[in-house]
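Subject: sequence -> structure tokens, single chain

Hey, anyone have a minute? Need the predicted structure for the following. Not urgent.
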Amino acid sequence: MDASLSRTRSDGDTPSQTVPEADQLAGGVDLVPARMINEFVYCPRLFYLEWVDREWASSADTLAGQLVHRRIEDEGGSLPPPEELDPEDRISARSVLLADHSIGVIARLDLLEGSAGTVRPVDYKKGSPGPEGPWEPDVVQLCAQALILRGNGYQCDDGVLYYATTRQRFVVRFDDTLIARTLDVVSKLRETARAPLAPPPLIDSPKCPRCSLVGICLPDEVSLLRGTPVHEVRRLVPARDDAQSIYVIDQGATVGRSGERLVIRRRDGSSESIRLLDVAHVSLYGNVQISAQALRCLAERDIPVLHHTYGGWLIATTTSTLSRNADLRAAQHRCADDPIQSLKIAQSIVVGKLRNQRTMLRRNSRSLPDHVLAEMTRCTRLAQQARSIGRLFGVEGMAARIYFGHFASMLRDSISFDITARDRRPPPDPVNAVLSFLYSLLVKDAVRALLAVGLDPYRGIYHQLRLGRPSLALDLMEEFRPLIADSTALTLFNNKMLGSSDFLIRGRSCALLESSRRKVIESYEHRMDTLVRHPLFGYQVSYRRILEIQARLLARAISGELPAYRPFITR
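Reply:
Had a minute. Here:
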């Protein structure tokens, strides 16, 4: 077995450190950081996700690696030009940035030592060496640094790899074989970077569990959906997200920052705070203010802020700049304009929704006529046979009339809550009011998932472009409406968590009271954290995680990496 299979990827460099270096161009050649050469040898797909798609996710290993590098990242010492280098000089320089335009590689050298007219790079690694010595990706990266030094006129015959965990130094000599290997890697790296799609995932590889990008890569899931045999689909990400969703619905409240904490202050003088490390996203409703300092620190941490009307409709998002993966968004727009590809994905979305609606009726209805499930099955078949988006909307509308026409049969005690159809503008009854608010919560989480993937939430595939409407978020949430929103509504009413006193009814309009919204949000968040077994992959994971997984699978289908989009359909 290749010794590099169990290497921990934890050098501590992040794209935020390497991208500015890579933006330096010479003669039209994009300078590749030597760090990316390390990633390419370790896993070509990992390189592509980081370098081409600009994806990044921190892990305990990468954070530990950053701590190791922090000790030597400050620039210090001096490095004379090669023509001024005296054989009697002793050189010790830290964090030296050099590039070789002939091979198109740039590197920030951790430490540069020199004596007797020669220099040697010293590269710090957080982890441990392999059973037979340094890992191959580390050796190739060090050799790339040596080639940069030689390209700048310095004599460099060997270098040092220092592994901080074991405090071991290994001297690496740059012979012809290693140099040829390094130049070949650089050539293949550039060829891979020019490809329209990422390389396929590694199959059943022990490298994957410790990779910080495994939740983005989804190696086993993508392999399975591409038809590649895998031993099993491993759950390589936590079943739940430890970070919390923050909702601020108190009118007149302010959100600010104090050190590494987010502070929420109410008009009555009370306040509470939460560590920024524990925040997944922030949702602001109505008349709530947030400071510029809080906005900036949240954006720096890729924590989205979602702005809602008092009634719950999403009207704006504040995120970091959309600089990552522009190619994916370009593919999204091409897909939306392609009637064949968009119809194929739209059919999967609608079929997933209708099958989940049928399951909800079958599981929860107290008295369902025999023909209803047969009609839902017929609608599903018609959706699969639809030849246009317009026809698909017609089939979905027909199924919605059947589903919501029997929604009341899933309520244990209607307590005068009479629902015979889905009506939202404005909601005429408590059930519709709760469903509208729950759907707004689901839209918000769909937008968040799509932004994390790099897609544009407002350019839909099934729901067509409309000013101010997050059409792709509406696409993504369709299959989850019955399983998350409708299920949460049934829980609230059937467990008598909501009653007539929780609503304000004026004429033909019904709205949730502010205090009642807290109950709905709490129940919704509980549902999102519920663990379920994924019907395709077999592992248990929360609905919140599943929403993100489906967003990534949708992105893979849009880009063409997957042959089709497979919706989440409960058994």
